[in-house]
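Customer escalation, tier 2.

The customer says the design service returned an amino acid string that "doesn't look like it belongs to this structure." They asked us to rerun it and document both sides in this ticket. The original structure tokens are below, unchanged.
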């Protein structure tokens, strides 16, 4: 396939035109406004420009700052080009050039892009009217205007290649011809109308598009005035297409264009007698006018002939049943046999293994008189690859050259495969395109290797002794075979089953675009090709080969027949190209199989070419900067592309080198040792792929630089029970762990490289720990996991490992954050993760802390506890994929002046160290919503953790402070402590400050994350423990603290107790042992220290952050704050660096362990210890820090609900949903309740039950909707059922929906039901049903499912329909759990607006002005309220406000009677906000708890009242200024509130089933 660019031929046309006009021109063709008047052609080649900014040079204006003239090696002419650097995703870059008006003419330019992006040239006039917009798109196609419609081509471009654009225009007829060339090959042309009909063109400009980045080079711009140019003659023919594939009987039309000496190009007509098509072999292809007809299978050339000019078309004709390749690539020459005369044997250096190689050489010499050289594996050849015929013996762990093929997936031998006494013989034809074959004899042990050699000898004997035939056979040990389908040896019937399955998968392929299901079907086939290709390669079994052949041929047929649709489907966002490197590796080896004919290989090559061409357009690669920290969405497609590019480089395709470079750049340009991902589930995606890339490319630098830090970070996030600790985007418990997604290979490789037992021990703890039933996909297939060592490991010696360590912040991640804005934490002070581990036993405690509130997924969990586990239980957890705000983590939440901005991205570590067995850390989040937050954690034994949270106020303001603990188990409050019990083991969190203690539970989250995938066996609830300090005014310099002692104990065992003895000291007891924790400096008679924290034990005294200590008659001073520890009985002391266990690594990747910085002995005694303890523990008379009584009142005005409410009903089950609606048309609302077992009841305003209905499953929503003028009750259930019930309680219909379950999020089953008049009020409405996993269904009035859509992304929280655009039809806003909301218009939903997290609430805002379309109010879990309108058909986000917490409710209406609607909002930040339609905050109040529901009305007397239902059974009645009129505390949590107009009805339903109405 010829793709070479011939610069001489490129410039021929222009040079001829220049010569023809030479006598007409009196000056040079310099492109300046001053000198090109009446010039027929302006040529801009930039050679006479000055290097630097183009602005102002030769007439260019409006140029962006980063538009410069530079020198490059591959300019179209000369060495200078214009370069446009676009490094912004929010601003467009470009430059403008004006010239004398042209009525008829052309503009031509050359462009090269460094990546896929958007870059266009625009033909305009100086008034801004546009004729054409032509250029590159980020998906690798081109865009242009076909008249007034923007269209996209099927023609594609590749980064790194020059493309020529030419537009011939005619302003008299308002027509233009568009041409795009790849080099000198015409790849697209189109005759179209003007976008805007203007009489002349006098402005040309370039522009990038603001949502992509990239670097673009421009050269050889030519602006021609046809009215001044001579008419010219045709001097070259251009044909399209230049290559044509046909089936017998099929015909295709050919376009022929004439290139004129004046630079123009015009289509030629076959009606002209001078133009004809002539076939060189009419038996293969004949011509008929402008068409070529296939007649018989074969290849020939058809020429377009015009006078003396010719242009050839390569034609290949296929049989009728064949699908011709879309791209013509000649398959590589395969030398299937391997010559023995020049064979080199590479055998491991181990004597026994090396002897195998020698014995085989002896055999060849004895039997065939040839003596091959036997060599040890070479590190140099691992890096460079090798040529010649080679026999490679061994496996991953003992042969470094085998390790190179292992990385390339051309060999698989390791400690697992081919297993005990097994072997694999495989010919790899020319693995490095350097010539020669490599015969692989892979074996896990010596016995298998010997058996393999015996089989190899047998095959050589059978072939005559001069060569090795192509081999693909294996004998597998049972231990390896268990991982393969049908144990690697399917029966005939099993093969038939696989073939039927393959047919079914292929039958699902449909040539569509923008259909996610169809795209997923193609992805699945691609995945199966990888699976069965690998099975065929691993076993050599003919049955697997048949399935592989069928799938690969079927895939090739589909891709070749529908290339545009297939490439679009391949790049559908769900595909991260995780199979791409496997598919091309399997094909590299197995294309030599006799299964594949020459035609097969051509078809498959074409399909694979199109596949990796699509891979090269992956948005994550295209959007990645040249350097920066990488993450999973970049690294997976990059590895696939790098390997695909390496394969296709064999065919001398320049674009293949570009693909390889694009893929390599993601790895080479990775500034991160680990990843931009931040959570335990995703952190190992990049390190895992770094291992693959390093071995596949022979680059061990990746291993040495990244493996040890990655593995150490991985084990930091692994507890002692066999689970991962969470943080960042995390899947439900049991779904993911160290054996997920191939992550185990990080620890396998680390065990092999570093010979440290901790990696394999903790990895294996996953399946031999407390939770053996977790989903461990890596264990389902242990093949190709970089397992070089046998399984089984002893418990590491805990004395060799610090009890607390912190991993440094990744330098690349830090730089990436710094580029986005100033950081208050220096790189040297930042950390990634921090973990306490007191031993490796199942009962030993573990606690981890996050140092990052940023990264690819942006969870704001910096300085929060990711997990606390002990005594074989997980008690504190951080496990969620979607909810990323501070209130969803284990740490401090701050609401200042009613607002909660994003958390700063980094945490500073001040101390971290294991000092003589006591583990201590201190970390800080600076400038966190007006404060600095310091968290100190200390544990001397692991049986308890002293946790001190100090908030230093930096800005005056009203602060609401919370300390949250996400726990598992049965929670209770006992005086000053929380206790959480899990089947005989109890966590105790003793709170020793003035905060109030609260508990609330999370049902949906618990069911999804802890009972959905693998049922956590010890807990049945997920309580959130909350320590609350109500809103109060603080001044800068004030300080507030939370003090907690965290511990756990088994029933019947001694528990840890703590007591606060004064402002600064806490006494902690465990049996007979005791400690005194003291915050701040110590000034006792015998011991003085300016340290920030002290721990006094019976045998040890610790001072942290000290620079001066006076004791035993000595004064010790230190230049930097240290951690001082003294052995009390002996007086021996040591001083340690305050960050002694912030781990750093040497050049070889080994951790650097820090010793103490100073030591000595003080004169000390037991008496001095006692005196010190007495002085430090002296009681304080001031008791501001004492715990208030629980069940507080609101300003002392706690009103008994029974004074103003009466209980009218008690449902027979827990209430889970409420609603209101006028069912009988009397103008008075009824109140609806739904229960956990499916009971639906309707109450009137007096509390009388009008009717009840038994639905199927827990009620998620009960709502009244208008269905063609009839009020209908819809009950949506957790059991995927919707019941439609009429006003009298009779079921109209029910519908059960497919259980398309999503494992992430909080939603279960059917989430919401609305009616929508999508075709206008005169037509029947539709019923729209939302579910827990982004499936939304459209039903008719009778409950029949008409269609469904998959939204992005995940479950559907809420939705509302109204005529938002004023067209007489209803549209919908749909709130989703994840990053986007959707807008439903013309029966189709699509992503809309800018992203956030958790679109929890949707409300329809009705404006006061009659006739004005409504707007949408959207509330998020990320503290946002957005006001959105549809203006001129486009989504417009008019304003956004900070709600101070997760938005729980939005209501709007004229509640105060002033004629202007108000917007009411309640949030988790205890906030009640009131806004006007312009987003002005009119008033706000901080209430006593999380605000669940709000409302308001104006009474008949004209008084305005507001109400708010809050957590823990609280209910407010507020006046118009949001002052409390009454506060009621109900006995149970409020499930819902119903409010009628003018407060005619006010219902309150409690979760326990009680219903109250206001008297």
């Amino acid at each position: 396939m010829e793709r070479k660019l011939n610069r001489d031929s490129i410039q021929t046309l222009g040079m001829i035109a220049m010569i023809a006009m030479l006598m007409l021109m009196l000056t040079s063709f310099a492109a300046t406004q001053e000198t090109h008047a009446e010039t027929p052609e302006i040529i801009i080649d930039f050679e006479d420009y000055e290097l630097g900014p183009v602005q102002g040079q030769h007439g260019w204006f409006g140029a962006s700052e980063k538009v410069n003239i530079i020198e490059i090696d591959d300019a179209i002419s000369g060495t200078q080009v214009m370069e446009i650097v676009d490094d912004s995703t929010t601003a467009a870059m470009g430059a403008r050039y004006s010239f004398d008006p042209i009525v008829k003419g052309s503009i031509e330019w050359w462009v090269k892009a460094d990546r896929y992006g958007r870059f266009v040239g625009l033909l305009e006039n100086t008034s801004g009217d546009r004729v054409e917009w032509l250029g590159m798109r980020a998906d690798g196609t081109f865009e242009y205007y076909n008249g007034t419609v923007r269209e996209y081509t099927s023609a594609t471009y590749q980064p790194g290649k020059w493309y020529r654009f030419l537009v011939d225009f005619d302003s008299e007829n308002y027509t233009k011809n568009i041409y795009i060339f790849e080099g000198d090959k015409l790849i697209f042309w189109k005759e179209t109308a003007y976008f805007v009909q203007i009489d002349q063109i006098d402005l040309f400009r370039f522009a990038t598009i603001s949502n992509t980045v990239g670097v673009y080079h421009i050269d050889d711009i030519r602006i021609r005035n046809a009215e001044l140019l001579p008419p010219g003659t045709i001097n070259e023919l251009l044909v399209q297409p230049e290559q044509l594939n046909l089936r017998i009987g099929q015909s295709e039309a050919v376009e022929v264009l004439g290139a004129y000496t004046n630079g123009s190009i015009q289509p030629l007509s076959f009606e002209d007698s001078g133009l004809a098509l002539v076939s060189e072999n009419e038996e293969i292809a004949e011509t008929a006018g402008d068409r070529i007809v296939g007649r018989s299978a074969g290849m020939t050339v058809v020429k377009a002939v015009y006078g003396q000019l010719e242009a050839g078309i390569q034609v290949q004709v296929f049989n009728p049943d064949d699908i011709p390749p879309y791209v013509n690539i000649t398959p590589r020459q395969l030398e299937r046999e391997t010559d023995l005369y020049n064979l080199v044997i590479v055998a491991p250096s181990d004597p026994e293994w090396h002897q195998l190689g020698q014995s085989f050489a002896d055999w060849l010499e004895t039997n065939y008189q040839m003596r091959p050289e036997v060599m040890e594996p070479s590190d140099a050849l691992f890096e460079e690859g090798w040529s010649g015929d080679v026999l490679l013996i061994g496996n991953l762990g003992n042969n470094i050259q085998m390790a190179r093929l292992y990385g390339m997936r051309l060999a698989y031998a390791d400690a697992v495969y081919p297993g005990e006494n097994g072997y694999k013989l495989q010919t790899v034809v020319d693995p490095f395109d350097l010539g020669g074959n490599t015969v692989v004899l892979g074996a896990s042990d010596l016995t298998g290797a010997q058996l393999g050699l015996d089989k190899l000898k047998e095959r050589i004997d059978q072939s005559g002794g001069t060569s090795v035939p192509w081999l693909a056979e294996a004998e597998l040990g049972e231990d390896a075979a268990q991982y393969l389908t049908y144990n690697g040896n399917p029966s005939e019937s099993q093969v038939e089953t696989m073939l039927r399955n393959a047919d079914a998968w292929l039958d699902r392929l449909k040539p569509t675009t923008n259909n996610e299901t169809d795209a997923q079907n193609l992805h699945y086939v691609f995945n199966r090709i990888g699976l069965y290709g690998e099975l065929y390669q691993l076993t050599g079994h003919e049955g697997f080969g048949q399935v592989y052949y069928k799938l690969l041929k079927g895939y090739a047929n589909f891709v070749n027949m529908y290339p545009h649709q297939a490439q679009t489907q391949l790049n559908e966002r769900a595909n991260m190209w995780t199979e791409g490197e496997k598919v091309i590796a399997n094909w590299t080896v197995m294309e030599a199989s006799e299964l594949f004919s020459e035609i097969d290989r051509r078809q498959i090559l074409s399909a694979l070419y199109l596949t990796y061409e699509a891979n090269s357009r992956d948005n994550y690669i295209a959007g990645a900067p040249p350097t920066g920290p990488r993450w999973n969405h970049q690294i997976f497609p990059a590895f696939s592309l790098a390997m695909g590019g390496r394969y296709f480089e064999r065919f001398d395709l320049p674009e293949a080198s570009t693909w390889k470079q694009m893929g390599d750049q993601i790895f080479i340009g990775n500034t991160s040792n680990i990843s931009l991902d931040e959570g335990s589930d995703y952190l190992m995606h990049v390190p895992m792929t770094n291992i693959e890339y390093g071995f596949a490319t022979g680059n061990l630098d990746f291993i040495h630089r990244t493996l040890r830090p990655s593995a150490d970070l991985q084990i930091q996030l692994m507890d002692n029970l066999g689970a991962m600790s969470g943080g960042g985007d995390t899947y439900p418990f049991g779904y993911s762990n160290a054996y997920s997604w191939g992550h185990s290979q990080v620890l396998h490789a680390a065990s092999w490289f570093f010979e440290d037992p901790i990696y394999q021990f903790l990895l294996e703890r996953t399946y031999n720990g407390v939770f053996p039933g977790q989903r461990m996909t890596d264990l389902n297939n242990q093949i190709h996991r970089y397992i070089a060592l046998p399984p089984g490991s002893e418990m590491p010696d805990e004395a060799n490992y610090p009890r607390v360590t912190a991993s440094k912040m990744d330098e690349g991640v830090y730089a990436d954050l710094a580029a986005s804005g100033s950081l208050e934490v220096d790189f040297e002070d930042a950390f990634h993760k921090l973990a306490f581990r007191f031993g490796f036993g199942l009962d030993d405690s573990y606690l981890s802390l996050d140092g990052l509130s940023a990264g690819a997924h942006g969870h704001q969990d910096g300085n929060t506890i990711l997990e606390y586990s002990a005594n074989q239980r997980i008690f504190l957890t951080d496990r969620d994929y979607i909810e990323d705000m501070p209130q969803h983590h284990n740490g401090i939440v701050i609401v200042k002046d009613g607002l909660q901005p994003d958390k700063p991205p980094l945490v500073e570590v001040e101390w971290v160290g294991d000092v003589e067995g006591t583990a201590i850390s201190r970390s800080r989040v600076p400038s966190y919503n007006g404060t600095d937050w310091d968290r100190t954690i200390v544990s001397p034994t692991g049986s308890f953790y002293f946790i001190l949270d100090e908030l230093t106020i930096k800005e005056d303001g009203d602060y609401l402070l919370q300390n949250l603990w996400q726990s598992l188990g049965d929670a209770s409050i006992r005086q000053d402590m929380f206790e959480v019990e899990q089947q005989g083991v109890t966590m105790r969190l003793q709170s020793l400050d003035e905060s109030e203690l609260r508990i609330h539970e999370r049902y949906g989250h618990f069911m999804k994350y802890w009972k959905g995938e693998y049922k956590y066996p010890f807990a049945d609830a997920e309580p959130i423990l909350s320590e609350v300090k109500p809103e109060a005014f603080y001044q800068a310099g004030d300080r507030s603290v939370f003090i907690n002692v965290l511990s756990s104990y088994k029933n019947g065992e001694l528990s840890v107790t703590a007591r606060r003895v004064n402002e600064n000291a806490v006494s902690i007891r465990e049996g007979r042992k005791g400690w005194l924790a003291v915050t701040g400096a110590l000034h006792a008679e015998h011991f003085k220290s300016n340290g920030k924290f002290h721990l006094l034990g019976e045998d040890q005294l610790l001072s942290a952050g000290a620079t001066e200590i006076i004791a035993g008659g000595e004064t010790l001073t230190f230049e930097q704050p240290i951690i001082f520890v003294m052995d009390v009985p002996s007086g021996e002391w040591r001083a340690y660096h305050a960050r002694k266990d912030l781990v750093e690594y040497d050049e070889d990747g080994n951790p650097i362990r820090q010793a103490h910085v100073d030591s000595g002995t003080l004169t000390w005694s037991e008496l001095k210890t006692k005196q010190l303890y007495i002085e430090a523990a002296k009681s304080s008379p001031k008791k501001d820090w004492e715990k208030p009584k629980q069940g507080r009142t609101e300003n002392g005005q706690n009103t008994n609900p029974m004074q103003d409410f009466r209980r009218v009903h008690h449902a027979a089950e827990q209430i889970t949903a409420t609603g209101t609606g006028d069912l009988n048309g009397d103008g008075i609302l009824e109140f609806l309740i739904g229960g956990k077992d499916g009971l639906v009841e309707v109450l009137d305003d007096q509390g009388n039950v009008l009717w009840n209905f038994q639905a199927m499953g827990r009620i998620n929503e009960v709502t009244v909707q208008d269905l063609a003028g009839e009020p209908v009750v819809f009950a949506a259930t957790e059991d995927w059922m919707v019941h439609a019930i009429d006003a009298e309680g009779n079921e109209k219909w029910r519908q059960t929906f497919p259980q398309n379950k999503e494992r992430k999020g909080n939603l279960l089953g059917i989430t919401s039901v609305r009616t929508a008049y999508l075709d206008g009020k005169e037509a029947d409405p539709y019923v729209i049903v939302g579910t827990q996993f982004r499936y939304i269904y459209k039903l008719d009035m009778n409950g029949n499912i008409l269609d469904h859509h998959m939204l992005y992304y995940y479950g559907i929280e809420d939705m509302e329909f109204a005529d938002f655009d004023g067209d007489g039809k209803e549209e919908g806003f749909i709130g989703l759990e994840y990053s986007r909301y959707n807008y439903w218009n013309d029966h189709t939903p699509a992503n809309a607006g800018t992203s956030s997290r958790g679109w929890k609430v949707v409300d329809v805002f009705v404006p006061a002005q009659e006739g004005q379309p409504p707007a949408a109010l959207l509330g998020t879990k990320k503290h946002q309220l957005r006001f959105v309108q549809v203006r001129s058909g486009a989504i417009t986000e008019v304003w956004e406000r900070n709600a101070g917490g997760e938005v729980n409710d939005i209501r709007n209406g004229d509640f105060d009677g002033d004629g202007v609607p108000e917007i009411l909002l309640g949030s988790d930040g205890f906030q009640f906000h009131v806004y006007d339609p312009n987003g002005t905050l009119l008033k706000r109040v901080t209430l006593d708890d999380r605000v669940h529901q709000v409302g308001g009305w104006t009474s008949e007397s004209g008084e305005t009242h507001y109400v708010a239902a809050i957590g823990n059974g609280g209910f407010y009645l507020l006046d118009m200024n949001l002052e409390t009129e009454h506060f009621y505390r109900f006995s149970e949590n409020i499930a819902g509130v119903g409010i009628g107009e003018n407060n005619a009805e006010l219902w309150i339903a409690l979760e326990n089933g009680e219903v109250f109405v206001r008297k």
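Tier 2 assessment: The sequence is consistent with the input. The first strand starts at residue 41 and ends at 44. The two ends are 86 Å apart (CA to CA). Sent an explanation to the customer and offered a walkthrough call.
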